[in-house]
Fold this sequence. Notes:
The longest helix is centred in the N-terminal third of the chain and has 7 residues, at 9-15. This protein has a domain at 42-133: Jelly Rolls. With 135 residues, it is mainly beta. The chain contains 2 helices and 10 strands, in the order H-E-E-E-E-E-E-E-E-E-E-H. The relative contact order is 0.25. The termini are far apart. The strands form 3 sheets. A 5-stranded antiparallel β-sheet has the order 1-2-9-4-7. It has a 3-stranded antiparallel β-sheet with strand order 6-5-8, with no helix packed on it. Strands 3-10 form a two-stranded antiparallel ribbon. Strand 5 (72-76) and strand 6 (81-85) form a beta hairpin.
Amino acid sequence: MKSIFSGNLNKNILKNPERKGWLLGHFIKSPILLNSTDIEIKWGIHKKGEKYKKAKGNKKAKSLAILVRGRVRIYFPDQNKAVVLSKEGDFLIWSPKIFHLTEFLDDTRMLTIRWPSIANDSQAKQTKAFLKFNV
């Protein structure tokens, strides 16, 4: 079936808050063009001070975060490494099985891409580094 679909990512988030900014992936059922097992795409709108409560990672998917605007710190507790994305176009890519914590240092827009899109691939864990990260 041939199809064309257009929209606005900001409006999509308001219309579908349960998706938490995810636009494309195996978990999006409608419209069918947005359903994919190859890739996941998220349009993230985050407020200054927002933080993840647990470290997140994926079993098999790679992740790419691209800063559109704002400033974000991504901390990798098992590697004891932090990266700050602060300029439009800054990006960070990491492999599967690497957990991260995220802190938004300013109001931020980010594009996140993960591949492949696999059910039950996402993981979360509490880490001792969480306390250090949140100081």
